[in-house]
Structure of Carboxylic ester hydrolase:
Amino acid sequence: MARGAALLATLMVVVMVVAVVVVVATAADVPFVDTRDGRVSGIVEESVKGRDFSSFYGIPYARPPLGRLRFKDPEPFPDWGAMGEASIPAPPCIQYFSATERVGIKEVLGEEDCLYLNVFVPKINGDASFPVMVWLHGRKVHPWQCPGVPSSRPPGPRHRAGGGAVPAGCPGWVVCGELVTSLTRGAACVLLFSLLLSHCTGFLSTEDLAMPGNLGLKDQTLALRWVKTNIHLFGGDNMRVTIFGESAGSAAAHLLMFVPEVQDLFSRAIMQSGTALTSLTINNNPRKEAIEVGGSLGCPTDQGSNTLLLCLQGLDAKALFPRYESSRRWGVLPLTFTPWVDGRFLPRHPALLISEGRSTRVDIISGITRDDGALFALPALAKKQLLEELQHNFSMAGPASLQLEGRSEDPEAVARQLYLHYLGTTHVTEAHADDFMRMFTDHYFAVPHDRISAHHAGKIYRYELQHYAQLSFGQLICPSCDNKWVSHVDDLYYLFRGGPLLSPRTAPPQRPKDLQLPDDLTLRDIITTLWTNFAATGNPTPDSSLGFTWEASTPENLQYLSLTPSPSMKPDDRKETRKFHNSLPIQENLMLHPHLVKVPQGATRSSRHEL
C-alpha cells in the first residue's frame, strides 16, 4: 500500500553524483552495471539541453508491501541485481492525485507494488566516485509519473536504446538530466525512487507493533541504505550524500535529521518550503485516526490492534481513500495520517530535540517561496464555500484552516488571534486576499523556516524564491485569480518539466508545458547550479562564476538570498512577525521558547507543554 502520506507523498531520490566521471560501462550504446547478482542494463537518454546520460529504471529496493507487509515496516529487496533489464519505470505508488483533486476531480492512481528506484548517470566512463544527491518529493504525485500508465517512460529526453514507445499523454521529464550532465560541476549520478505514498497507509498507526506507522519515513531510510550499499556501482560516493526535497519532502529531510539510525546516511540537506516544525508535520493522535478508519470500513475496533490490522490488510487498497477525505473539515485541512513521535524511530518531538541540541549536524540550504501560503488561500478564493464556512462556522473552520487542533488548549482562540492580527476580521472576502495568503505563508512556512534557521547547529544558507515565472502552480488552483503570487510548488518548475503535477490534464490547452521565457530559463540555470555546487562542495557559490556570493546566515543574522534572475542578499525582514508568532500558546512554541509565550489566564505552561 502506498505510504508517502500527508507528509511524504511519493518519495523520489535524485541521487546525483556531482562530477564528470562515473563507473558505468557501455556496449553498443546500452549502458550497464555489473552487480554481485548479475548485469543490469539501462538506456541512453538526452537532457533538455541535448546532453546524453544513462538511465536505469525500476530497480527494486524493498519487497512489495502487499499482504502481510501492508502497514508493516519495509523489508529490503534481496537480489535487485538479478533483474537484468532496467529500462521501464515502475508505476507510481497508489495515491489521491492532488493536482486534479484541488479542482474537484477525485481520482486514485498508482499501485501498491511500487517500491522501486531509478538511477541516472552521465554517459561517461571513469573510476572516480563523486557526491550524491537524493530527492524526496512532497505529498503530490511526482512531476514525471504517468497517471493511469502501468509502466511507461517519460517522454522528455529521447530514449535511444532498450526502450519502447512513450504512451500519449505521459508527462514531461525531470530537468535532472541537466543536474546529471551539467553546468560547472556536472552531476555524475541521479537516482529517483518511489515510496509508499497513500495518506492512510503510509502513516496509519495503532501506536504499537501491530501498525507501527512512520512507514513513509522508513521507506526513505531503506532507500538511503540502498544508496549507501550500492551507489558506488554507479560512480557515487556513499560518504557524500545530499538529501533534498520540497514541501512534505522537505519536512521529511528535516525529520531525518532527528532519526538516530539515519545519521550516517547523508551529509548535507536542501529544504524547499517545508520543516518538521510546521503544524502540518507531526500527528499527535494517530491511534484515534486508525480506529476511526477501521470503524468506518466495518473492521472491529474493540478486539485489539492485531485484529484491526488483519481486517485492514484484507481490504482493497483503494477503499481507504474515502476515509482519508472524510477527515477534512476545511478544504484539504486538517492534514491527517502524518508522522508521529513513536519513541523509537523518532525518539521525541523535533521541537524538543532542537531545544536540546539533538539533531544531525549537517550543513543545509533552506528556503521558501515568497507566497507559499497561496497553496491554502487560493482554493478558498476559488471556492467561496470555504470563505462562507469561516464566516458562519469559525469555531470549526478557523482551527482547521491553521491545523491547530491538538496543538493548543484553545485552538479557536489562537485561530481567532491569527485572523484578527492579519485580516482584522474572520469574515474573509476577496478584498483580504493578500493578507489571507500572508497569514498562511507565515504560519505554515516562513516562521517555521526562521525557527529552524535560528536553532540549526550546522551552516545554513537561506533563500526566498521571489521571481514570478511564466508558469505558476497558483494558476492551476485558481485560474480566475490574477494575484501574481509566487506559490508553493513554483520552485519545482525550475527542477522539473511538465508532468501531471505541474501540467495536469485539467490545465488549459494553450498553457505551455515548460518554462520558455529567458528570465525563467536563466533562473533555472542559476538554481540547478547552486544546488549542484552545494552538493559538490558544501558551498553554493564556491567561486565567482555566477556573479554573486551566497552568504551563510547565523542565528543573529537571518539574511537570505533573493532568488531572481539577478540574485542578491537581503536582510532579515520578519523580526516583528516572529515576535508575534512566538508568543502564541501552541505546542512548538512551548517546546522551543516557553518564556516567549503569552499564556492565557487560567492556563499553565506545563499543561501546554504536554499538548
Remarks:
- The CA atoms of residues 228 and 238 lie 5 Å apart.
